[in-house]
Amino acid sequence: SVTTSVTTSGTSRVSELLFPRNGCTDASGASFAAALTRVRKCSLRTLCLASNALRDATAAAFAEALSAPSPHGNRSLASLDLSGNRLSAAAVCSRSEICNHICNHNM
User: Among 7, 9, 28, 55, which residue has the least CB neighbours within 10 Å?
Assistant: First the structure.
């Protein structure tokens, strides 16, 4: 998988990953979020996981990954699309926090 090869090498030159309507579940969403914290030199700017089967656990995993202190937190991600997933109102608030974090660290 993409996340396996990126995390084992410790570096990434991928700047965009697009997986809309791909049947991604919370397990794959958690893998993407974890990869953001494990890759030392992550250059990922855009991650699209729109219209999958993601739930609140995935939004929480991304919020944690993006807010983790350096060197574990991701600072390269500028666009995260979780639209069209099965997120509750609480997760929408997390998405708002995620968006604020992205905007505040990538201006």
Answer: 9
The 10 Å CB-count burial string (b at 16+, else e) for 70-82 is eeeebebbeebbb
Q: What are phi and psi of 80, to 5 degrees?
A: -125, 115
Which is more confident, 15 or 6?
A: 15
Tell me the pLDDT tens digit for each residue of 42-97.
788 899 999 999 998 988 888 888 877 766 667 788 888 888 898 887 776 666 66
Peptide bond into 69 cis (omega under 30): no
Q: Are 38 and 69 in contact (CB under 8 A)?
A: no
Prediction pTM value: 0.75
Provide the pLDDT for residue 1: 47
**Residue for token pair 């574990």:** 72
> Is-contact 21 52, C-beta < 8 A?
yes
Greatest pairwise CA separation for the chain in angstroms: 37
